[in-house]
Amino acid sequence: MKFESFEQPKTADQNNPSDQKEKQPEKEEDLLKYEPGVGIRFTELLKKESGETSERQEEERNPDEFATQKIQSAESKTVELGTDSQQRLDEIERSVGLPAEDISVIREEMGLSGRLGKIGDEANRLLGRLKEKVSGLFAKEKSSDTATEKSESNERPEYSELKDYLKREQRELSRPVIEEAKRKRDQLLEARGILSMSKADFDTNFSSKEFEVRADLKQQNVGDCYAVAAIHAMSRSPHFETICRSSMKKLPDGSWQVRVPLMSENGQMVTITPEELLPQKNRQFLRRSEKGGVMPDLRRKLMPVKGKEGLQVLEAAFIKQKFGSVDRLAAEGGWGDEVLLSLGGDNFKKYSIDSSTYNPEKKKWEYPGLGSLDEKNMAYLDHYLENFDPEVHMATVSTKHSKIGEVVGFYKAKGTTAKFLVPGHAYSISSVDAEKRMVNLANPWDTSKPIELTFDQFKENFSGFNAIRIDSAKLLSSMRHVAEKKAA
Amino acid sequence: MEQDNKKIINPHELAKIFESQIKGVVSEKFSIAPDDLALLLEDKDGVYFSKEEVDTLCCFVVGEKNGFLYLVTGKIEESGKSLINLKSDIVS
């Protein structure tokens, strides 16, 4: 047998107590030896008895340096371990006196190279973990020190306000209990409301399916993307049905009565006739735009949003309430939160952030994107996204404006391969996956096609965040007042 | 036995008895004056026993100025004579 004299590296039999006893390490070198199933005892090294007192003192005096030294020591021991093992193997192979080709065959057959590699990998893995743990511990200590220092120093009021805000959003109750509460709240709202629109009318005029509100909208040739986006954002709310049914009514002649703001006690009753939902003649046809530009307006007719009738009514009601008539041309250009606040009144609270800034030197507006927000606004935006709840939040966002004036075009969302956005255009937020940090958006041109962006892509590509939060107290109060008024 | 106890306890009455403690939990956690808080005692679903957690009273509290709707929960003990481990969160 050619290979009889070839010594296998000794390993401890863990089932044999005497063998275990023999392997009790005496020296630092022993502590670093690899043991199958045990690994390399770096942790033992850190708490070995010899010199423990002086090390502790050193640790207390200068913990950062102490940790760095220990990591460096462990690193050098790892290298030594690999080198020593390789040297020992080389010596053994030399003593056998076989040709190099045979040695490599033996290495391969015995799998020694692989095993050495594995030992090295294991050592590096453990070293990595040790580094992480030590740095984690020190980072924790440092941050708690910094936090204490901060609270002792003059803390800026806005941070204190923000901290309070974030603190109150921390969940104390379990998710099932919160979900149960949300169901109860909906029952409570239902019990309080006087609904002017029947469930059947709502299903016919708002939803595509029997039990699902699917506000599939397609903006036509009118530049009211912000209004369509806002209506779509609103339609995602679980309160949408209650809000619409309590404030809208279809009359026998086909016209609609809409109380704007919706759910308000003293809202203005806006009537929308069937004619007002039809395409209307464009008074600007073949003329230059009133808002500038060189091209004549080639739109002969201005079309209402394409979608269910109830959603068209909401678009028309917003325009009529704001401009006195359903003047689609006048409604071109605006902000989503304006529509939400107009339709929701004081049941909604504004929650908007804009990254655009006016550059007085260049005498123009700049749109650096939401990613450029200052720390406080970024914290609010992150908080809104991470806690996005369709029960209470409705949001539209606007893309950066085109760098080449008012020219309409597409641009690829940065950091993605297949998503195209329109400059100076409003989108609605359909949902947010806080865990995956993804925002699901809809383009008013066709809300049935979702666009998914990561939080970072979202911040990079959008410059305006025009959102609201439902004011539950106002909503409850409004419902009570509406009910009382109706009863009287 | 617990079920029997539940049947004889009216959640609305219980919430009324512990109204100040319930408001106190929200007031302390969210820094709101108790006078600005209102329990929805007149609503059937304003106070209820949780089906998710046994022996737990749930009560909605509205922040009348800030517009938040809070939920306060508490463990019912001694057949409804005491309410312990009160917790609160914003629902919407």
What does this structure look like?
Chain A has helices at 17-22, 28-31, 42-46, 52-61, 63-96, 100-110, 112-152, 157-168, 175-192, 199-206, 225-235, 240-247, 309-323, 336-344, 375-386, 455-461, 472-487, and strands at 248-250, 256-260, 268-272, 280-281, 301-302, 348-350, 353-354, 357-359, 364-366, 393-399, 411-412, 420-421, 426-433, 438-443, 446-454, 462-470. With 488 residues, chain A is an alpha+beta fold. Chain A has two domains: 21-146, no CATH class; 175-487, no CATH class. In chain A, the strands form five sheets. In chain A, strands 6, 7, 10, 13, 14, 15 and 16 form a seven-stranded antiparallel beta sheet that branches. A three-stranded antiparallel beta sheet of chain A has the order 1-2-3. A two-stranded antiparallel ribbon of chain A has the order 4-5. In chain A, helix 4 crosses helix 5, helix 5 runs antiparallel to helix 7 (112-152) and helix 11 crosses helix 14 (336-344). In chain B, strands 1, 2, 3, 4 and 5 form a five-stranded antiparallel beta sheet that branches. In chain B, strand 3 (56-63) and strand 4 (69-77) form a beta hairpin. The longest helix of chain B has 12 residues, at 19-30. Chain A binds chain B through residues 164, 168-169, 171-174, 176-182, 184-185, 187-188, 191-192, 349, 389, 391-392, 470-474, 476, and chain B through 29-31, 40, 43-46, 48, 50-53, 56, 58, 60, 62-69, 71, 73, 87-92.
